[in-house]
Amino acid sequence: MAYRVNEVAQHVTIYLEGELDMSVGEKVGQFILHYGEKYPSVTLDFTDVTFVDSSGIGSLFYTTKDLLAQDKQIEIVNVQEDIYDVLCVIGFVEALGVSIKQVEPKV
Predict the structure, then answer these.
(1) Contact at 8 Å (CB) between 71 and 102?
(2) How many CB atoms lie within 10 A of CB 4?
(3) Of 4, 85, 91, 107, which one has the fewest beta carbons inside 10 Å?
(4) What pTM was computed for the model?
């Protein structure tokens, strides 16, 4: 999984690319936590995330939960439909109360 960061004022956007799975979940979680602790507002852009497995979701869940406990604002945007459906089915949105926005359908 690749990632890049855009830091602006009091906000950081983390662009993730590739598969969020067991092989990278912990590393990605630490990366998100590192930047998330520096800023009050964090956006995770999933435009180029092609797959998530239970380990990747678990890492994302606990990282997000840690940041929310620090009163950080977390938003996950541009989530592909199949990944969005998985996050909804497992209760990710309801459990954490974070905003998750799907990719807008192309016309």
Answers:
(1) no
(2) 10
(3) 107
(4) 0.89
Which residues 6+ apart lie within 8 Å of 74 measured at CB? Answer: 36, 42, 43, 44, 64, 67, 68, 96, 98, 99
How does DSSP classify residue 71? T
Lowest-confidence pick of 18-32, 39-53, 75-89, 93-107: 93-107
Question: What is the rounded CA–CA span in Å between residue 56 and residue 59?
Answer: 5
Contact (CB, 8 A) for 92 and 57: yes
The pLDDT tens digits for 62-80 are 999 999 999 999 999 998 8
User: Residue 91, class by beta-carbon neighbours within 10 Å (0-12 exposed, 13-18 middle, 19+ buried)?
Assistant: exposed
Enter the tokens of residue 14.
Answer: 């983390």
